[in-house]
Write a structure and sequence with these properties.
α1 crosses α2. The N and C termini lie far apart (about 55 Å). The chain has a domain of about 120 residues: GMP Synthetase, Chain A, domain 3 (2-Layer Sandwich), CATH 3.30.300.30. Strands 12-11-8-6-7-14-15-23 form an eight-stranded mixed beta sheet, sandwiched between helices. Strands 5-4-17-16-18-19-20 form a seven-stranded mixed beta sheet, with helices on both faces. The protein has 18 helices and 30 strands. It is α/β, with parallel strands linked by helices. It is globular. A hairpin with a 2-residue loop joins β26 and β27. Helix content is about 30%, strand content about 25%. The structure holds adenosine-5'-monophosphate-propyl ester. Adenosine-5'-monophosphate-propyl ester binds next to α10, β20, β24 and β25.
Length: about 650
């Protein structure tokens, strides 16, 4: 499959994609295996919203990720797995083996009662079986809902409950650095409030003790072995379920401004076409390259650019189980040299934390296999960009700062590696098929360059969110009603004098902490689980490493003298209910919160205090109790 190779070609292709989007995307979709070609490329309106791509087409995405490559790439490594412990051998799974294992596990799913349209929750460590589980669901037409292994039981149970999953796929545990996280016991706790789940399939990985519930819980390995016993030796012919272009492929939960996470729904053909196109063009993948995306499959980046995008393109995708600082802060660079990685895609927060630990961890490594570097998940500050460019890319690797969202399915604004001239801190230009606009608060489009506003898209691309699971109204209200006729991202953005885009950050009540999107309301709910806390308000504050940190203002229902112990308990409570990623960095015990007369918390004021911008609190006279602001200011945590 061809890809863009020059800036002129990008410009021509962009123009074509905007003037004739249907022809453009049909050309991209031609290469795939279809059981039936589409009748119509696009049907859409942003009012309901209703977006359909490749209407009437029939296909299975896994045939495009796997079967399509068997003839010429059967023996090529599809997944290259690097374990948490560097002493454990790496694993290489060829396209042929991956195909076989996906077919086997698809059969296991069927034997355990799964069928097309079911929702299956996957809560697993970063092992190849996670990708196999994802693909096996897609093979049988079940909708996967992967939940990040760092979430705790309450977040997991909310997600299982919302999607009414009937099967959970998990492991006994996960290794993360020196820690061993007991995933199965988290599942057990979550299932106490998830009656829809009938089967739990458990992979043995850490050998942690687990309690298996009769009838409900089965071992992955035993289920696969059963297939052989029943005589189905060769499953490579396991027939893929034929799906409609618009059949849901997966649900992925993302945080919103209410406490309830939104189940973003992506469908089959549009998502497939979009992630394949963007993967090949943004990273400029060459046959034989080793590509490494460090994101967990629990996030959209892992779905689109660790599993689906690379496999659709027939690439070798590296999957890493561990963390950047184990056994030491040179692990990323060690893995790059060890596996001769050519393309490396990570998050600014990882770059900043490794930068802070010093160059001694970088120096022992050559890093000469690298050709392209990528960044995703949050704005990358100029300093981190330069550090990455100089010390990791040795001044010769283009950096693709890729802007996108769970809801967009794939990359929207980004340089094409080595083609688009880059500027530190800028995601640069929209990809072909992407039509960004900046609006002012009143919804008026800002024309021309050197403007700043709210980032929206005015035309659908194939990877766009179709709905929020079980609640289409929420999808409409969150993304399509704020500015009529536009998809609204929730991000602020600047278009500079050259027409380059720079994302300035969220303009709503979600915070990006170490690249993870967290809803303040969800964190508040977790804090409020502490028996002594009556109310809390969470805001973000700028943090050198994490991008944003979490600042919690809490009201305790009685005077507790042991303030430090109380704070530690709050941190524990959040860890228990939501997971360690949502732990507050700063906690301030307050006697009240600044509220309007109608009871709304004035977060603007709390944000300013958290940022120590105490002289710019704005008008506080409309507050129910202005005195509380003085108290909070006086007690602000440095
Ligand atoms: O605020 C933007 C930020 O991440 C948000 C989307 O988060 P999520 O759905 O978790 O997906 C993350 C991975 C795609 C966006 O609304 N964001 C993502 N990439 C960038 C970014 N902000 C600035 N620059 C980026 N490259």
């Amino acid at each position: 499959m061809q890809r863009i190779t020059s800036l002129e070609q990008y410009q021509t292709e962009y123009k074509h994609s905007v003037e004739n989007p249907e022809a453009f995307w049909a050309e991209q979709a031609e290469q795939f295996t279809w059981h039936k070609k589409w009748d119509k490329v696009l049907e859409w309106n942003f009012d309901e919203p209703n977006v359909k791509w490749f209407v009437g087409g029939k296909l299975n995405i896994t045939e495009n990720c796997l079967d399509r490559h068997l003839a010429d790439k059967g023996n090529q490594t599809a997944i290259l797995w690097e374990p948490n412990n560097p002493q454990t051998p790496a694993r290489k799974i060829s396209y042929k083996e991956l195909h076989q294992q996906v077919c086997e596990f698809a059969s296991v799913l069927k034997n355990n009662g799964a069928k097309k349209g079911d929702r299956i929750c996957i809560y697993m460590p970063m092992v190849p079986e996670l990708a196999i589980a994802v693909l096996a669901c897609a093979r049988i037409g079940a909708i996967h809902s992967v939940v990040f292994g760092g979430f705790s039981f309450k977040s997991l149970s909310d997600r299982i409950y919302d999607a009414e999953c009937n099967i959970v796929i998990t492991a006994d545990g996960a290794f993360r650095g020196a820690k061993d996280i007991p995933l199965k016991s988290v599942v057990d706790e979550a299932l106490q409030t998830s009656p829809s789940v009938k089967k739990v399939i458990v992979l043995k990985h850490t050998n942690t003790n687990v309690v298996m519930q009769n009838e409900r819980d089965v071992w992955w390995k035993e289920e696969v072995e059963k297939l052989n016993l029943t005589g189905i030796q060769n499953l490579s012919g396991f027939k893929a379920e034929i799906m409609d272009s618009e059949d849901p492929l997966f649900i992925l939960y993302t945080s919103g401004s209410t406490g309830k996470p939104k189940g973003v729904v992506h469908t089959t053909a549009g998502y497939m076409t979009y992630v394949d196109y963007t993967f090949r063009n943004v990273f400029q993948y060459n046959a034989g390259d080793v590509y490494w995306c460090t994101a967990d499959v629990g996030w959209i980046t892992g779905h689109s650019y660790l599993v689906y995008g690379p496999l659709l393109a027939g690439a070798t995708t590296l999957m890493f189980e561990g963390i950047p600082t184990y056994p030491d802060a040179g692990r990323f660079w060690n893995v790059i040299d060890k596996h001769q990685v050519n393309i490396f895609y990570t998050a600014p927060t990882a770059i900043r934390s490794l930068e802070a630990l010093g160059l001694d961890f970088v120096k022992p490594y050559k890093l000469d296999s690298l050709r392209v570097l990528g960044s995703v998940g949050e704005p990358i500050n100029v300093e981190a960009w330069n550090w990455y460019h100089v010390n990791i890319g040795k001044n010769k690797c283009p950096i693709v700062d890729t802007y996108w969202q769970t809801e967009t399915g794939g990359i929207m604004i980004s340089p094409l590696a080595g083609i688009t001239p880059t500027k530190p801190g800028f995601a640069t230009l929209p990809l072909p098929g992407v039509q960004p606009v900046l609006l002012n608060e009143a919804g008026k489009e800002l024309i021309g360059n050197s403007v700043e506003g709210r980032l929206c898209f005015k035309f659908p691309w194939p990877g766009i969110i179709r709905t929020t699971y079980g609640d289409h109204k929420r999808c409409k209200e969150t993304y399509f009603d704020v500015f009529k006729k536009y998809y609204f991202t929730g991000d602020g953005c600047r278009r500079d004098e050259d027409g380059y885009y720079r994302i300035t950050g969220r303009v709503d009540d979600v915070i990006k902490v170490s690249g993870h999107l967290l809803g303040t309301a969800e964190i508040e709910n977790a804090i409020n689980e502490h028996p002594d806390i009556v109310e809390s308000a969470v805001v973000g504050f700028p943090h050198d490493i994490k991008g944003w940190g979490i600042y919690a203002y809490v009201i305790c229902d009685h005077q507790r003298k042991d303030v430090d112990a109380l704070k530690a308990e709050i941190v524990q409570t959040v860890t228990k209910y939501m997971g360690p990623i949502a732990k507050p960095d700063k906690i301030q015990i307050v006697s009240g919160l600044p509220k309007t007369r109608s009871g709304k918390i004035m977060r603007r004021i709390l944000r300013k205090i958290a940022e120590h911008d105490l002289d710019n609190l704005g008008d506080t006279s409309t507050l129910l109790d202005p005195a509380v602001v003085e108290e909070i200011k006086a007690g602000a945590v440095k």
